[in-house]
Amino acid sequence: MAYKIILIGSEGQLGSIIAKRLSSHFKIILTSKNGDNFKNIYKLDITDLSELRYFMDEHEPDIVINAAAITNVDYCENNKKESRDVNVLGLSNIINSISINTKVIHFSSDFVYNGQELINSEKTLPSPINYYGKCKLESENVLIGSNKPYLILRISTLFSDKGDNFFNWVYN
Questions:
Q1: DSSP assigned state of 170
Q2: What one-character-per-residue DSSP string does 57-75 give?
Q3: How are strands ordered across the β-sheet holding 103-109?
Q4: CA torsion, points 118, 119, 122, 125, in degrees to nearest 10?
Q5: In angstroms, how far apart are the furthest CA atoms of the chain?
Q6: pLDDT of residue 168 exceeding 90
């Protein structure tokens, strides 16, 4: 039996790559904040707990992949409430809307570190120096304390042909 996976943030740079790679192997339910009926992407606002609970009850996923985030560091610094609502409250709402056995895969960032170490590991103590990093660290701690099965991936850079990233900047 294939796992039923809900991919949150499927239209973003990270989410679109995950959707493309996993869709032939798993039953994936795609969501985004805007939705797109023509692409079978459900509209879902992770900052709305009641909407999220209804959606999760309806679909009963085995795994939730959270690829939704506000990742622009400068934007997060200037829009702290919105940044925290999406990056922390959104994950908290996901956790509070799923069953106890639903696994959560969450994407964090190397911005939880202060940049002083050349190489970081799981043993490196987080020490974020900006609001984005602080939100990502807080979201990790919310998930760790949730008693749900989880995987946290701290990524540093995305490379794809979609979106604003280092690869496209160099190429262009």
A1: H
A2: HHH--SEEEE------HHH
A3: 41-43, 27-32, 4-8, 63-66, 103-109, 150-155
A4: -10
A5: 46
A6: no
pLDDT tens-digit series, residues 91-124: 999 999 999 999 999 999 998 988 787 777 778 8
Cβ atoms of 154 and 112 within 8 Å: the answer is: yes
For 28, what's the count of Cα atoms within 13 Å in the CB-facing half-sphere?
Answer: 23
How far is 63 from 150, CA to CA, in rounded Å? 9
Q: How many angstroms separate the CA atoms of 3 and 124, rounded?
A: 33
Give residues with Cβ within 8 angstroms of 27, minimum separation 6.
2, 3, 4, 5
For 78, the token pair is 């200037």
